[in-house]
Design brief:
Elements lengths: L1 E10 L2 H8 L5 H4 L3 E7 L8 E9 L1 E12 L3 E9 L2 E12 L4 E12 L5 H24 L3
Helix pairs in contact: 1-3
């Protein structure tokens, strides 16, 4: 199991940061390791959509998340399907820090199928965060 919580300051208004991070279909262009994303209709009437991610980080895998949102304050998700994970719950919470800065709190709680040492999952998560946040900033910068 890997649990993490981290805070990052993005350049951009809270609304723009929310819109940028909500552009799931653009992740393959901006987020390292994401090779394909498919956005589809939600199966839960309270959810916003289903998003299927394909990634290649050490190995190729996929997962589908049911996405929920409270615009522009919070995005959260829960796992619907995966070939590698048995749990993936998480959230983004946004707080404006003036006109052009936004504090984002990112939380993630994942469990893998089979035996994956926590040392490996923790290292993957921690090593990927700076690249991921850099990719999100570029996505936000390119969000109208």
């Amino acid at each position: 199991m890997a649990e993490l919580e981290t805070t990052h300051i993005f350049v951009g208004s809270k609304d723009r940061v929310f819109r940028g991070i909500s552009r799931f279909d653009q992740y393959p262009t901006y987020i390292p390791g994401v090779t394909k994303v498919e956005v589809g209709p939600a199966t839960n009437k309270e959810a916003n959509c289903l998003v299927r991610y394909e990634l290649n980080i050490i190995k190729s895998f996929f997962y589908t998340l049911e996405m929920f949102e409270k615009t522009p304050d919070r995005l959260w998700w829960s796992l619907k399907d995966s070939n590698l994970m048995k749990q993936n719950n998480g959230s983004w919470e946004f707080e404006a820090l003036g006109k052009d800065k936004t504090k984002a709190v990112y939380r993630l709680d994942i469990k893998f199928k089979g035996l994956v040492p926590s040392m490996i999952t923790d290292q993957i998560a921690k090593a990927n965060l700076p690249l991921m946040f850099g990719g999100f900033q570029k996505l936000i910068d390119n969000t109208p």
